[in-house]
Here is the input.
Amino acid sequence: MTNSMEDIELAHVILVTGSNPTDNHPIVDLHIRRAVANHGAKLVVADPRKLELVNYAHTWLRPRPGTDVVWLNGLMHVIIKEGLWDRSYVEERTENFSSLKETVIKYDPEFVERITGIPAEDLKEVARLYAEAEVATIVYAMGITQHAAGTDNVKSIANLAMLCGNVGIEGGGVNPLRGQNNVQGACDMGALADVLPGYQSLSDQGVIEKFERAWKVKISPEPGLVVTEIWPAAARGKLKALYIMGENPVASNPNASQVTATLKKLDFLVVQDIFMTETANLAHVVLPAASSAEREGTFTNTERCVQRVRQALPLVGQARPDWQIICELAERMGYPMGYRSPEEIMEEIARLTPIYGGIHYDRLEKDGLQWPCPTRDHPGTPILHKGRFTRGKGLFHPVEFIPPSELPDETYPFILSTGRVLHHYNSGTMTRKIPGLQVLYPEPLLEVHPKDAEEFGIEEKSMVKVSSRRGELVARVQLTRRCPERVVFIPFHFRRAAANLLTINALDAVSKIPEYKVCAVKVEAWKKRA
Here is the structure.
């Protein structure tokens, strides 16, 4: 996030798109509702599903799945045509505006309505509302990123925010919500294919030499594989072994049957986790890890805030904290990794990673610190890009609409979208073990519009077979108008009806993120075999 979660309450207009914070980010949802109820903020929700947050919205835009670039370009078309953009901000702090203007000129409201289904007048109203607000913020999540054109979607959001001068100010910003605990921290620490900790590039020889001196090893400047590139590499035999920590790709990756088959082909699979997941059951070796309640360390959350984690419970059985397991493995493989505590590791992070340079355990006793925090006396950075962008001037990236990789046809007439529900988390490894949550949401429910159910002979609470070109599952029907016609939704938390048996492994060309949010399926009545 460019801004803090609390900053949302300072916004006059809040645009939420591709995110269901009520179910997935309840603290952010609370800030949004407070902004509306206590401060008179105008809320715009742009989502194909009728989320609970729609009940608090000034306007709800309901685009067809996979058409986000179209309506975002359409907003900018109206703003530019009506002269509503922040001219001084664009002139002083950005570049490439002329290219953006040239690109969005054809995305007039009538064109947008034909492609997205959003009424032209609604588009104009939202464009004016956002552009004329003194302070406006955009909140988004994986409904924006998990597309084959996800990077384009994010660029379009950034374009819109810069066009109206809403980056680098209190209450504004471009605010993506992270999908899992400490995903931000993992990325910060170099768990990406092309950077070292602190997003220091492998193409920078000075950076490489710094880490080589500290770690006393040679570092290859060649980027590694991102997670979605691992499976084809393993299927081709290029990759022989995998060490998986705290991840359950059998349940969470698209085209899950292919992932399972690939894992079975490996010569050696190690899984380090706190539970025996579907993936752990395929492993040659399972290393028992400690949960967050059983270890010391830090987490970095979605607003870049580094926070202390303290051990509250004793370790169970042979479980150990992840850092201890890694250190002992390294020692046995001939590399001395003799860290004595998480605090010692944090001190090395501060020495080698400029954005964490001023973050030390004694400064995290009561509150967290938001990076960049380069020196010990630095207060942290709640708002990014104040005054200037990291690169100097903000660059407009004009993008054209690219349709989803797979659209409905006569054989597969529905669009399937996947996501989460409030009661469960990710692949359900933890939450499906909690009896109370199982009572509240015991099984996967396929959301189907009543008109589609009538046309296809589907009844409420009946069992149906849902199939795509990659697999099939059986799930119970929930008739609801939350989904538009010809769109169905299923959560991906459940082993029995694993949604990712159906999803397509089409990838964004830049980020390599899969297109979880759009694929073609058919829905048929199902009868249990005798």
User: Anything to note?
Assistant: Residues 414-525 form a domain with the Barwin-like endoglucanases fold (CATH 2.40.40.20). The CA atoms of residues 9 and 31 lie 6 Å apart. The chain has a mean pLDDT of 93.
